[in-house]
Amino acid sequence: MKQKSKTQEYVESLLIAALIAFFVRSFIVQAFKIPSSSMEPTLLVGDHLLVNRLSYVMKVPFTDIVILNLGNPSRGDVVVFRYPVDRSKDFIKRVIGTEGDVIEIRDKVIYLNGQKMDDPHAHFAEDSIVPGVFSQRDNFGPIRVPPRAYFVMGDNRDRSLDGRFWGFVKQEDLVGRALIIYFSWNSQADDFFRYVRWERFGRLIR
Q1: SS3 1
Q2: Nearest-CA neighbor of 56 among 32, 89, 80, 20?
Q3: Is 56 left (phi over 0), alpha (psi -120 to 50) or beta?
Q4: Is residue 73 part of a domain?
Q5: pLDDT tens across 75-111, in order?
Q6: How many whole angstroms separate alpha carbon 100 and alpha carbon 108?
Q7: Is 4 designated active site?
Q8: Dihedral in degrees, nearest 10, Cα atoms 11, 17, 22, 23
Q9: H helices of the chain, where?
Q10: CATH of the domain at 74
Q11: Per-residue pLDDT tens digits for 144-199
Q12: Catalytic residue among 13, 33, 59, 93
């Protein structure tokens, strides 16, 4: 039997590695970087996450064609999804309401199906209340979540472009659930040794 050359073995190893990486990236895990402050303090600008692509839907690689529905987000899940206004972009927010829920916000307080919602992740940068006639930031709804859709908000409520302004996330636009922070970089640090946020490595996203 003819022996493989070192070059052939090297090329085959690279191809196998590329196929495995393609499969993992397409179906299992995706890396995601936090670009804005909309999820602070849960997620910071410069956090790098791993997203479980098998949480909710399986899609044809590099498309948004759903092959299989694997589950539904629960209230409180932090999810990555196609931004409905520009589907070339991925956004990350927290699920507040699911199919059939009635959402209302009164003076920054969320009411879910008529009851004040337990909202431990909410963060407010301002004490001021914006009347609903000027903005939907602090006063919104009531509105019912349609079938196969979700209402999402950023944890940094005063600094988040979310469902209050552009509507609902459809089931087929879900990318996956955010799992864990694997790296965090603080580009604003004034000390070289503080650029890397070591304490955030391995932090589960809740």
Answers
A1: coil
A2: 80
A3: alpha
A4: yes
A5: 999 999 999 999 889 999 999 999 999 999 999 999 9
A6: 22
A7: no
A8: 130
A9: 6-23, 163-166
A10: 2.10.109.10
A11: 999 999 999 999 999 999 999 999 999 999 999 999 999 999 988 888 778 999 99
A12: 93
Q: Cite the DSSP H helix spans in 36-144.
A: none
- The residue annotated as part of the active site, out of 38, 55, 160, 184, is 38
**82-104: buried (b, 16+ CB within 10 Å) or exposed (e) per residue?**
beeeeeeebbbbbbbbbeebebb
Give the residue numbers spanning the domain of 86.
29-200
Query: Is residue 135 among the annotated active site residues?
Result: no
Examine residue 36 and state whether it is found in any structural domain, yes or no.
yes
How far lies 49's CA from each of 92, 202, 205, in Å? 11, 9, 9
- Can you tell me the mean pLDDT for 109-123? 97
- Token pair, residue 99, equals 């199919």
Instruction: Please check whether residue 170 lies inside any domain of the structure.
Output: yes
94 with 76: CB under 8 angstroms? yes
109 beta partners: 106
